[in-house]
Amino acid sequence: MKVTLIQMDIAWNAPTANRVEAESLMRGAAGTDLYVLPEMFTTGFAVESEGVAEQAESDTLRWMQGMAGELNAAVAGSVAVRTDGGQYCNRLYFVTPDGTYRYYDKRHLFTYGGENNAYTAGGQRIVVEWRGMKFLLQVCYDLRFPVFSRNAMQRTSPEEEPHPLYDCAIYVANWPDSRRRVWDTLTRARALENQCYVLAVNRVGNDSQCHYNGGTAVIDAYGKDIATAEDNVSAAITAEIDMERLVNFRKKFPVLADGDYCMIEIGRKTPV
Which of 47, 140, 178, 259 has the fewest Cβ atoms nearer than 10 Å? Predict the structure, then answer.
């Protein structure tokens, strides 16, 4: 599978301009299966939800649906949304070419920055399947909580051979350069401990509080970088992620089968 990660300088609370910038980067990397955009890619990381959050069925979601259809690829990215029930969520959409989508609401809100005062935490892990691979959806601060992202063997029927819960973890972020070493360390750790690919997508540029220098990378299950973006530059990076190679590695070195949560049985809740 071919994946493209979009590292961009996000203009503060300027959805139209940011969609134009993202579209330009995406069109310059046509022919991929999945495009991944940063956290809150239309506004920048905003803890003030009023005047920033969009309706759940928003112009940005419709734009993502349009781009997915035009490029015949899935498009993923996080947006601040106001739900029909009046709650605010940091919502990561995963949109496919036929216009259907699934979403994950960020579970771990960034208390240090006040995100918990404006947004409601999600309650579920979300795994989506796309073109033969399973993707775990995660947002920024989730990276610091490895139990929530723990991979495990599962089966959905007694006759089925056990298989991993997911193959690739997506982390979209606005992660400042002051904590860049943490980002670099933990994204590789998540790949190693969960025996999966990691798509780590961060922004560049500035907001009123922080500078962001990137660190966007495609990381394999050995913790090695397949592709990286240049720091402090808006860019689209594309790489191939090889499902056959991952399956062979898992068979040769069965880490997941030896884990504390080695099996998720049919009918049981995910053990996290």
Answer: 178
Residues annotated as catalytic (active site), given as ranges: 39, 106, 140
Kindly report the CA angle at 93 between 91 and 98, in degrees rounded to 5?
155
pLDDT value at 257 more than 90 = no
The pTM of the full predicted model, rounded to 2 decimals, is: 0.94
Q: At residue 159, does pLDDT exceed 90?
A: no
55-64 pLDDT, tens digit each:
888 999 999 9
Output the pLDDT for position 272. 44
Q: Which residues contact 59 (CB under 8 A, 6 or more apart)?
A: 15, 19
CA dist., res. 156 & res. 159, Å (int): 9
